[in-house]
């Protein structure tokens, strides 16, 4: 089905990236993972995939030159854009001049409390995040006191596939996201849509978050303890990886797995979230 975009978005002129960088004597900083998304079709598709209601508050991470911010400002009631690079703040003020519903914050999102940035929970996160902090950003937002209701993040295509994986290809990252919400790949973006183009294609992951985690909150600490131990030794059976990760003998690890209905010879990537939940419940029943 063909996507529809509001007229207010379709009349946005392309951002003159080269002129902006030249005027401010800037170049993209590889060390900060700066690849600015400039393709208007990709920007429109991201906002369409987010399905932002007019009354929503949006948190944008790493707005860069403000390409996506302009579109978000047309869709949402309020946009809070957090940018680490101090050199880009003047550019953002220039590009976003007149956008009264946009607040630019200079700082590291990993050191910011979302509760202090947003007026309430249930906000949207829409961003083209630097690839090197993908896992850290997910963890920071999902474990925050005030969580978003939806996250729409542009990441490396391979990372998007890992996040959306099913049992058989699970990872600690997939579990860490899926325990809080349901992820899916919403948009695929070629490397040429960025300036400068990265070496790999990207994808937009949309995660719709539930009001509560799929594992009871009081069990999350033990859930992650087991999951980290289970994935700590690649290509090892769960009996051996749990044994090594928890500092147990193999007999004790095998007993735990069998009590949870899990074959000790399986590997961590084959377990579903529900099976990790069952394993956590037995672990807690036995006193950890």
UniProtKB/TrEMBL annotation:
Residue stretches in coiled coil:
none
Residues binding S-adenosyl-L-methionine are 35, 37, 62, 83, 108, 128
Which InterPro entries does the protein's record reference? KsgA/Erm (IPR001737), rRNA_Ade_diMease-like_C (IPR023165), rRNA_Ade_Mease_Trfase_CS (IPR020596), rRNA_Ade_methylase_Trfase_N (IPR020598), rRNA_adenine_dimethylase (IPR011530), SAM-dependent_MTases_sf (IPR029063)
Q: Which UniProt keywords apply?
A: Cytoplasm, Methyltransferase, RNA-binding, rRNA processing, S-adenosyl-L-methionine, Transferase
Which transformation does this protein catalyse, written as a reaction? adenosine(1518)/adenosine(1519) in 16S rRNA + 4 S-adenosyl-L-methionine = N(6)-dimethyladenosine(1518)/N(6)-dimethyladenosine(1519) in 16S rRNA + 4 S-adenosyl-L-homocysteine + 4 H(+)
Give the enzyme class: transferase
Example GO molecular function? RNA binding
Q: Where primarily located?
A: cytoplasm
Which domain of life, per UniProt? Answer: Bacteria
GO CC terms of this entry: cytosol
Does the keyword section mention Electron transport? no
Q: Name one Pfam family in it.
A: RrnaAD
Which E.C. number(s) belong to this protein? 2.1.1.182
Location relative to the cell? Cytoplasm
- Asked if the Swiss-Prot or TrEMBL record annotates the protein with the keyword Transferase, the reply is yes
Q: Domain Ribosomal RNA adenine methylase transferase N-terminal spans what residues?
A: 42-211
Functionally, this protein is described as follows:
Specifically dimethylates two adjacent adenosines (A1518 and A1519) in the loop of a conserved hairpin near the 3'-end of 16S rRNA in the 30S particle. May play a critical role in biogenesis of 30S subunits.
Which family would the database say this protein is a member of? Answer: Belongs to the class I-like SAM-binding methyltransferase superfamily. rRNA adenine N(6)-methyltransferase family. RsmA subfamily.
Report what the protein is called.
Ribosomal RNA small subunit methyltransferase A
What organism is recorded for this protein?
Levilinea saccharolytica
Gene name linked to the record: rsmA
